[in-house]
């Protein structure tokens, strides 16, 4: 049996099979190291902080909140646009009420979401489109629906996603993030959810890549050994 011949042949064919994926691994890896995670996360697109709350504000107390929403599980005080609100959770569902009057504010209408988006957005572009979403697109597939999507007319096609119940900023998306998501899909070879780093296809590709590397290392060792022989 001519072992070097078969190792070379195996190495060559494995290289043809795994070469494209190895190139994708390298290209996607370069992108992930060149573009910082802060940029990918969209921290530059929208700030996520509000003005501090006043200590002496006129607000409903806990007993009043409990009477207002029977079955109250939890609550927190925060600022939404220009007013203080309570975020109440009953039966696992959150809603906003005016902290002074107890008026129910959820679900938040389009006009308030637009105002919230303009308040958080750090760019200078105008809003291009506001969409009510009941089926989450791939880029926010893990976020709860329904939600509001506010798209800005900037070079990055920036989109901010908001909860209609709490007004929270659920996600920041832009073209650099979308490229990252696409390359991440190619990198981990999960073409469905783009999140499973333990899928069988990746395991097989990694195993074949290891075999390619080992066969190449053996051939290098064998070649130098042959040259060293008198």
From TrEMBL:
Pfam families: PepSY_TM (PF03929). The chain crosses the membrane at residues 12-34, 201-224. It comes from the Bacteria. Keywords: Membrane, Transmembrane, Transmembrane helix. This is Peptidase.
């Amino acid at each position: 049996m001519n072992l070097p011949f078969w190792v070379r042949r195996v190495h060559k064919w494995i290289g043809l099979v795994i070469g494209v994926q190895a190139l994708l691994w390298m290209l996607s890896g370069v992108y992930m190291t060149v573009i910082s995670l802060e940029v990918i996360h969209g921290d530059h697109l929208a700030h996520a902080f509000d003005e501090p709350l006043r200590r002496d504000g006129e607000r409903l107390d806990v007993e009043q909140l409990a009477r207002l929403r029977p079955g109250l599980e939890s609550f927190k005080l925060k600022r939404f646009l220009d007013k203080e609100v309570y975020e109440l959770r009953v039966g696992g569902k959150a809603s906003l009420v005016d902290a002074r009057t107890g008026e129910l504010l959820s679900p938040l209408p389009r006009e308030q979401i637009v105002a919230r988006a303009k308040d958080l957005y750090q760019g200078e572009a105008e809003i291009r489109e506001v969409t009510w979403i009941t089926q989450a697109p791939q880029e926010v597939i893990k976020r709860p629906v329904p939600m509001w999507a506010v798209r800005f007319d900037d070079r990055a096609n920036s989109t901010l996603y908001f909860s209609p119940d709490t007004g929270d900023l659920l996600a920041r998306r832009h073209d650099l993030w979308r490229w990252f998501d696409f390359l991440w899909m190619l990198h981990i070879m999960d073409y469905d959810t783009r999140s499973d780093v333990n899928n069988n296809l990746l395991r097989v590709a990694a195993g074949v890549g290891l075999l390619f590397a080992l066969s190449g290392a053996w051939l290098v060792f064998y070649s130098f050994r042959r040259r060293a022989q008198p």
